[in-house]
Amino acid sequence: MKSIRMIGAAIVGLGLAAGVTAQGSDPISDTAAVYATYQSDVTDVKEKPLTSAGDIDHALNSLGGHNADQLSKGWIAYSALIASQNPEYRAAIRDIESFYGRDVFESGMRNDVRYARSLQGGDNAVSSALTATEADSRRLNSAAAYVKEQAYSLQASGWAKAKIGNSGSKAKKLDSSQATGIPAKLGLLSAMNAKDIDSVLVQAGSSGAPSLWDNVSGAASAIRFPAAMTSGLTGKRKRVKFGKEPVADQIATLAAYRVLGASTEKNASQINSAMAERETKGCLNMANLNLQQCVAAANQQYEVPFCIGEHALSDVGKCIGGVYQ
Length: 325
Prior knowledge:
By secondary structure, the protein is mainly α. It has 14 helices and no strands.
């Protein structure tokens, strides 16, 4: 199997050189690229210590400037991409489509939000997505601990003890960014739409697999998905937490559209509806508001990393992690 590491880099290079945009090729993959963009910025913060006020501002704006609705949809879209890899689920969808026709199948999904997940392999497909979510949530908690530790260690640095003086302005800038959101990076749009991306997504949903995003940074030249692993992955699959079944149903529905290759204008309304999830969006919106308040109350530079770690990282991990058990 060809290494996705090389494929991702090649695609990004071509996209940037030619000024090509991947947006519009597949709305599910395009939306997932928003989540990928956030995770790529997490990598950058994990790998580079905060050494100046400019570093702190960059981390704050890149991690804390995401729109709650867009990031929530991005996570659900990514989850659907993972779920769509389950072979049993894919086979069930194809069998029903070939026997009854695509229109009948799509009508079933429109009429019953639980229909797609009730198909053979549906629960296992969603379980794969939640397994990937757990790895992502652990990664965010780890990054949060690293950033918050710097809030303490930086107290020994003269520049970090300097008064901010414009904390209210920082909070307003965040509010403005969160209202519009941070668009998906071109390189990640290209990578998420790559023909070979499925072999990467299969691995990401495997029990015991690390987070897909550990090797993906914000730099276009550093989009290196891990090469596929065939052994050595052990772990317990995740189940849907009681009361979170509607989210699981939406992930399964979106995954079914992806398997069908039915991400067309005709289904745009249904696909957008499957991506929209009120509770996760609300949780992320509260994290954004808490981040604004925390930043507005900060007096010295070293206090801001704590806000970033607590609300732009840890809280996000809790929001997406609230779906599985």
